[in-house]
Amino acid sequence: MMLKKNPAGKIGRNDPCPCGSGLKYKKCCLKKNKPVSGPDYLKKTYLEKYGIRLKEKHEIDGIRECGRLVVETLDLVEKMIEPGISTDEINRVVHQFAIDHGARPAPLNYKGFPKSVCTSVNDVVCHGIPGDRVLEDGDIINVDVTHVYKGFFADASKTFFVGTPGNDAKKIVDVAANCLKQAMTMLAPGRTIGDIGWAIQQYAENRGCSVVRDFVGHGVGCEFHEPPQVPHYGKRGTGTVLVAGMVFTVEPMINLGGHELYIEKDGWTAVTSDHSLSAQFEQTFLITDSGFESLTPFDL
Ligand code: MF3
Ligand code: CO
Ligand code: CO
User: Fold this and answer.
1) For the range 185-188, what are the long-range contacts, defined as Cβ-Cβ under 8 Å and sequence gap of 24 or more?
2) How much distance in Å is there from the Cα of 141 to the middle of ligand 1?
């Protein structure tokens, strides 16, 4: 179905014009026979059509504040990563940092998840549960942090080297980081969700890697996971059109081998079926009038 520019019956002739001019609809866009655009119109249609909640300024400010804590947490984790530490020690540090800063770790008890952060080592694609596992020289580990602060959620992750990386580790982490960079070139109003997936898939497959299908990016901010879903593969020009005020994650999981995975008996840990290495980087992005802003910014 084509995007309806002006769904019948939604705006009365005497209502304020949704383009934000301050004039009545009949004196403004209706008179000029212009398709209605503007923040109020989009906010209503995106919620009704897609369930997407476009964020207001105070919400964006809250998510950004939360995002700063998330990035600070990842910085703290980065400093402690070395051979010999356990994933449980990472969990403790993440949990304590959140509490000390008036935040709450969103994963804890989320749909039964038992810990405060996801730690995914080597062939673990995502949702690794912290525990006794001790990091070894040459491992890679993704640490995925989501906090809730003053009611707002921000979600980001990075993959770290443990000690000295081998060539496979270097390659998959480089490809995953570059996939997120490629995605960022598509973040602007007028682009589509499909453009994001297309850019990631092109890059990953050109380098002989594969893109995980079973997990997607997601709207975030007022809840942990909101619409829309953001696949990391896809066709250019398809899917929902990006508009200012959208806040969502992009979090491509990239495998050195095939994209297939299985879930371990704990119900969470996702592992590559061929046990090839998997890496991931994630940020929370806001679409702005001129492009985008990362609400969890870090260098890639
Ligand atoms: N942070 C993950 C994401 O990027 C979700 C983790 S859900 C959990 O969407 F329950 F495993 F924590
Ligand atoms: Co996420
Ligand atoms: Co995450």
Assistant:
1) 187/242, 187/250, 187/285, 187/287, 187/291, 187/292, 188/242, 188/287, 188/290, 188/291, 188/292
2) 15
